[in-house]
Design brief:
Chains: A mainly alpha, B mainly alpha, C alpha+beta
Number of helices of chain C: 9
Largest interface: A-C, 111 and 101 residues
Strand content of chain C: 15-25%
CATH topology of one domain in chain C: Immunoglobulin-like
Radius of gyration of chain C: 29 Å
Mean pLDDT of chain A: 95
Strand order of the largest sheet of chain A: 1-2
Oligomer: heterotrimer
Low-confidence stretches of chain C: none
Number of strands of chain A: 4
Structural class of chain C: alpha+beta
Number of strands of chain C: 12
Distance between the termini of chain C: 72 Å
CATH class of the largest domain in chain A: Mainly Alpha
CATH topology of the largest domain in chain A: Cytochrome C Oxidase, Chain A
Helix content of chain C: 40-55%
Mean pLDDT of chain C: 92
């Protein structure tokens, strides 16, 4: 029996099913016009997984080349393109969307809210991210990909040394996605500050929400220097402005500063939420509250704060002088202290607990020693004179993959397993999940631990080959084998997601049994309006309190009544598309179309401003039918 | 979204009396808080532009230097126009608090006119410098000057469009709890643009000449 | 088959499997760690032959000791906790909910601070000590110029120029002035010293001192384009007497052809190479490419490949096929002309 497309793509999970519109096009239109934070979260996470795969394939290609010093698979410029695409894709289009997707879905639930503060702007953010990622990645079809590395140092990335349009795709793709990220950050900040349920003081918020908050504040302050840097880069490449080209009076170090004032906080932007996820998972599966909650909060704030002030450690070898290097070396080391606090607090959350080794818990446990290794190599790099040896070597590659993959990706994959039943009302397969974990864990360490040695034994980074006979062959082979094992683990993850969507055992509101935070109090999958009645929060770990000290259900803070929801809109998608047109046209100097693209944006803004959204109401009978008895 | 069903979190009757019209609804409070944070990000944005200018301002290549170009007279007029427009925008907000539709629109109109004067004069200023030989590509000083001051000018232009849209809505719908946050935020943006100009006036013009 | 997969997917007694897997894992991890301990490494930063690298190595070892201690403590506690506090099957009652312990938290704030201080103090002192320009009697000054994708070395004290192979005397402090002709590069000799970047529009400085004679591999350590991966150079540290002899030879190099083939090569050189390459003691004074004085004594072709007739011929025929992005054109030459050139170049001693 032939299946309709919508039956295939929206399997038996009501979360993906069409609300009212019929047919495939109706289903697509629903997703293009959604302003629901839950659906926007899923779009973000889908973008993230897609580019995780794209960036992963780029990595596997590089590792194939590096398996032997005699290889000539991908050399010279093409290798540099792979390397640039890999890094940029992973940070901007895999990690950030995955994190923003999780913020989007989970934070309003954890604070007892019905949506984020600005649902329309939320949709705009995700579509800007989508089109920015698309613009960046279609460069291949235009014949030239950027090849100056993800940090695009000048003058290598300027017109003289990168004459093709590849670098322009880099600049415009990142710029467009960056606007979306900034908007998203403001959205989360205001949501968290203004829309918490009654009784939820800041010090009663779940740690994941805290990390979403601090990460968003970091975005707000770290992205503008990148925005400016990218504008200057664009003006220099496209309009002949003089900013970074020393030959004409510019200053290449200016770009380095602008980039790294963004770039260092960026890595804290991605790791801080990972800390939040680990806190949630460890507490849930130890059946015990987080050890030292107030200190955990202070630690997150400190990490964010310190993270804004250490960027010079990326410029240790630029020759800025002993005083500057010494100051920033010590400042960089300081971040180890609040991080250490968090690690020990996680250990002591488990101490005295009753640990359940579910798949998410395995990822959280795997995170801990991996991230400690990452952190200590970071402190090693912070010692400036040592960094003079390590800088731009494989030791640095080892360090940042330990933090970004062993840190962020482990946490995110664990979080996907953890919250999957909440998203879809179904569980992923536990056995396959364990295979996913072990292949990922072993593959990861096999890939990146040897890189510490490659670096120590003299291998610089961003090279397509290395000297034979100096002892580097073994480590490169190990790294390549590990990389392919990691590829297998990602395939297993995708299979498990598909399994969960179609055949996973049904999940109730608190499928793990030991949920502590508000999202576990509401049905799985989450109804459109999240909470039938905004809850009254009695303390930290609000759901745990109601389960153990209360009646096993949330206390309401308002009577049951019709719920006001924001209307969907196609404008965000159109606006983002207008930006895409503007970006692509700038790259090819077709400024007429740039005006069209920006004009689309401007007109939509005016239309939106002039038409105040009345929204619509969900009637009480519908709420009652969704909630079942007891509503 | 303003709605009688929406919980006004943390607001009691006393709060509601004390708060300005723009802050009565959750939507209004959200917008205002969001905007303050946005201005924080914009401050870092302009700080980066100022840093760029400060690094590159001595690289005049063979082109004109600030000494040869800048005339304080013109700059004083620009400043006067912008400061006055900030003042008139405050009058507009006061009228808004009194729910006086006519006066709000009128003072917003004056603000827009003064801002337009600033923008036109600035465009004249740039054309004059270009005529004197300072093109965008002439030198690193030129590029960083035009970028910094140009970004500010773009913010002025955007602000004018925004204020116009808000004024139209006030004229059409009167002063409501939906419009009030828009008036407040648009004028807040306008003050920010004015403050940035103060810095430009000092760092770009005064410091180059003294 | 089904039973096998069921067991794999955890439906069987997977505790036994888990124990087995754990043993395999631990063995693998130990093996991976141990791989770092064997072999002889030719460009290891821990196999130092210079005073600067020595200072950096002691800082690195200090950091390794401190950080190994941290990793060990965390791992031991983690393993203990995972075994001791695992949930007994069916036990779903929550354990005692502990809020925290001020004492413990103070401990794990103070101890890291102390550990960091132990590392920070020598970090600061060595940062300052390594940045000093070397002054005194026995100093050698070298001007390093990086280009896509090769290195030029000038000795202003001696009035000689060479490329790709830097000769220095042992036991002598060498002040290096670093400049680039085009994009950013970075000058790194792992066994002798950490690196310093070459920044467009700026002159950077570093110093080093070789303690043992030998040949040390140098790497470019800042992405500079297609050929970055093969932009190597060599540092040949010699006893001072040998170094003086090298300098004398560079001032009065052998430039006469020693065979008919070589003489033919000299003519080809004048026609096809002299516009970019210079050779001291001749009329050839091109500056676009590396100086080729004494090329016959060099160990490598184009910095990366062993100097053999075959490699030399291959390089001359099509440089970009060996070094991607090389700006040296593939001058159309017949194979005998190339053979002649190779003979001539080998005569430059």
């Amino acid at each position: 029996m032939a299946k309709k497309l919508e039956e295939v793509v929206t399997p038996s999970t009501p979360a993906l099913r069409s609300g009212s519109k019929k047919g495939v096009w109706g289903w697509i239109y629903e997703w293009l016009t959604t302003v629901d934070h839950k659906r926007i979260g899923m779009i973000y996470m889908t973008i993230g997984i897609v580019y995780l795969a794209v960036g992963g394939i780029q990595a596997l290609m590089m590792r194939a080349q590096l398996a032997s010093p005699d290889n000539e698979l991908f050399t010279g410029n093409f290798f540099n393109q792979l390397m640039t695409m890999h890094g940029t894709n992973m940070i901007f289009f895999a990690a950030m969307p995955l994190l923003f997707g999780l913020f989007n879905y989970i934070v309003p639930l954890q604070i007892g809210a019905r949506d984020v503060a600005f649902p329309f702007m939320n949709a705009l953010s995700v579509w800007l991210t989508f089109f920015g990622a698309l613009l960046f990645n279609i460069c291949w079809f235009f014949g030239d990909a950027p090849a100056a590395g993800w940090f695009a140092y000048a003058p290598l990335g300027l017109k003289t040394y990168s004459p093709g349009p590849g670098m322009d795709f880099y600049v415009l793709g990142l710029q467009i996605a960056g606007f979306g990220t900034l908007m998203g950050a403001i959205n989360f900040i205001v949501t968290i500050l203004n829309m918490r349920a009654p009784g939820m003081t800041l010090m009663r918020m779940p740690l994941f929400t805290w990390t979403a908050f601090i990460s968003s504040v970091l975005v707000l302050f770290a992205f503008p220097p990148l925005t400016i840097g990218l504008f200057l880069y664009m003006f220099e490449r496209i309009f002949g402005g003089i900013f970074f080209d020393a030959a004409l009076g510019g200053n290449p170090i200016l770009w380095q500063h602008l980039f790294w004032i963004f770039g260092h906080p960026e890595v804290y932007i991605v790791i801080v939420p990972a800390f939040g996820m680990v806190s949630e998972i460890v507490a849930t599966f130890s059946n015990k509250r987080v050890f030292g909650y107030p200190t955990m909060v202070v630690a997150i704030v400190l990490i964010g704060f310190i993270g804004m002030g250490v960027w010079i450690h990326h410029l240790f070898t630029v020759g800025l002088g002993g005083m500057i290097n010494a100051i920033f070396a010590v400042a960089t080391m300081l971040v180890g202290i609040p991080t250490g606090i968090k690690v020990f607090n996680w250990l002591f959350t488990m101490w005295g607990g009753k640990i359940k080794f579910t798949t998410p818990m395995l990822f959280a446990i795997g995170f801990i020693p991996t991230f400690v290794i990452a952190g200590v190599t970071g402190v090693m790099l912070a010692a400036a004179p040592a960094d003079y040896q390590f800088q731009d070597s494989y030791f640095v590659i080892a360090h940042f993959h330990y933090t970004l993959y062993g840190g962020v990706v482990f946490a995110v994959v664990g979080a996907l397993y953890y919250w999957f039943p909440k998203f879809f009302g179904r569980m992923m397969h536990e056995g396959l999940g364990k295979w996913n974990f072990w292949t990922m864990f072993i593959g990861f360490h096999l890939t990146f631990f040897p890189m510490h040695f490659s670096g120590i034994f003299g291998m610089p980074r961003r090279v397509y080959t290395y000297n034979p006979g100096v002892g580097l062959e073994l480590y490169n082979v190990l790294s390549t084998i590990g990389a392919y094992l990691m590829g297998v683990s990602v395939v297993l993850l995708v299979i498990n997601i598909l399994y969960g969507l179609t055949k996973g055992p049904k999940a109730a509101n608190d499928p793990w049994g030991t949920g502590r935070t508000l999202e576990w109090a509401i049905p799985s999958p989450v109804p459109e309006y999240n909470f039938a009645q905004t809850p009254y929060v009695r303390g930290l770990d609000a759901w745990f309190i109601e389960k153990t000290e209360g009646k096993g259900k949330l206390q309401a803070a308002e009577p049951l009544g019709p719920i006001h929801m924001p209307s969907p809109s196609i404008l965000p998608f159109i606006m983002a598309f207008g930006m895409f047109i503007a970006g692509l046209s700038i790259i090819y100097h077709q400024f007429f179309f740039t005006i069209i693209g920006l004009g689309i944006w401007a007109i939509c803004m005016v239309v939106r401003s002039m038409n105040d959204d009345e929204g619509y109401h969900i009637p009480v009978e519908k709420i009652r039918s969704i909630e079942g008895e007891g509503a | 979204m303003a709605s009688e069903h929406q919980l006004t979190t943390g607001l009691n009757a006393g709060d509601r009396l004390r708060l300005g019209l723009a802050s009565r609804t959750l939507e209004g409070r959200n917008k205002i808080l969001a905007f303050w944070f946005f201005l924080g990000g914009e401050s870092v944005l302009f700080a980066s532009l100022f840093a760029t200018f400060l690094v590159l301002r001595h690289q005049t290549a063979n082109g004109p230097t600030p000494h040869e170009l800048f005339g304080l007279g013109l700059v004083f007029i620009l400043t006067f126009l912008l400061i006055t427009s900030s003042l008139t925008s405050i009058f507009a907000v006061n009228a808004m608090e009194r729910t006086d539709r006519k006066k709000t629109a009128a003072w917003l109109g004056v603000t827009i006119l003064l801002g337009l004067g600033f923008l036109l004069l600035q465009i004249y200023e740039f054309a004059h410098y270009a005529h004197e030989g300072l093109g965008f590509k002439t030198s690193a000083f030129a590029s960083s000057f035009y970028t910094l001051v140009g970004f500010h000018g773009f913010h002025v232009a955007f602000g004018l469009c925004w204020l116009t849209a808000v004024t139209v809505q006030v004229v059409r719908n009167g002063v409501t709890t939906v419009n009030a946050p828009k008036v407040f935020i648009a004028t807040l943006y306008w003050h920010f643009v004015d403050v940035v100009w103060m810095f430009i006036f000092t760092v770009v013009y005064l410091m180059s000449l003294l | 088959m089904k039973k096998f997969f069921n067991e794999l997917l955890g439906k069987g007694d997977y505790r036994f499997m888990r124990r087995r897997a754990l043993v395999v894992l631990m063995t693998a991890l130990i093996l991976v760690v141990l791989t770092g301990c064997q072999q002889e490494y030719k460009m290891s930063i821990l196999d130092t032959a210079g005073t600067v690298a020595e200072v950096q190595k002691s800082l690195i070892w200090l950091s390794i000791y401190i950080m190994s201690f941290v990793v060990t403590v965390v791992t031991v506690i983690l393993i203990y906790v995972l075994i001791r506090y695992r949930r007994k099957p069916g036990d779903d009652t929550p354990p005692k909910q502990v809020e925290g312990s001020t004492l413990l938290e103070v401990v794990w704030v103070l101890v890291p601070i102390i550990l960091l201080a132990i590392l920070a103090v020598p970090t600061v002192t060595t940062t300052f000590s390594l940045e000093k320009v070397q002054a005194g009697d026995n100093i050698l000054n070298v001007k390093v110029t990086g280009a896509q994708f090769w290195w030029q070395f000038e000795y202003p004290d001696y009035g000689i120029v060479t490329a790709q192979e830097l000769h220095i005397p042992t036991g002598t402090k060498v002040n290096l002035e670093l400049e680039t002709r085009d994009v950013l590069h970075s000058f790194w000799i792992p066994r002798l010293s950490g690196k310093t970047d070459l920044i467009s529009g700026r002159t950077n400085f570093m110093w080093l001192e070789a303690t043992e004679p030998g040949t040390y591999i140098g790497k470019c350590a800042e992405l500079c384009g297609d050929g970055h991966g093969v932009m190597d150079f060599l540092v040949v540290a010699q006893e001072p007497a040998d170094f003086e002899q090298w300098v004398a030879n560079m001032k009065n190099p052998q430039t006469e052809p020693t065979s008919a083939l070589s003489e033919q090569g000299q003519q080809v050189f004048a026609q096809s190479c002299a516009s970019c390459h210079a050779v001291a003691g001749t009329d050839f004074a091109g500056t676009a490419g590396p100086d080729l004085t004494g090329f016959g004594n060099r160990q490598k072709v184009a910095g990366f490949w062993d100097q053999t007739d075959e490699n030399m011929a291959k390089w001359i025929k099509d440089p970009a096929s060996m070094k991607p992005g090389s700006l040296m054109p593939a001058v159309p030459l017949a194979d005998e002309e190339i053979e002649a050139l190779v003979a001539y170049l080998k005569d430059l001693k």
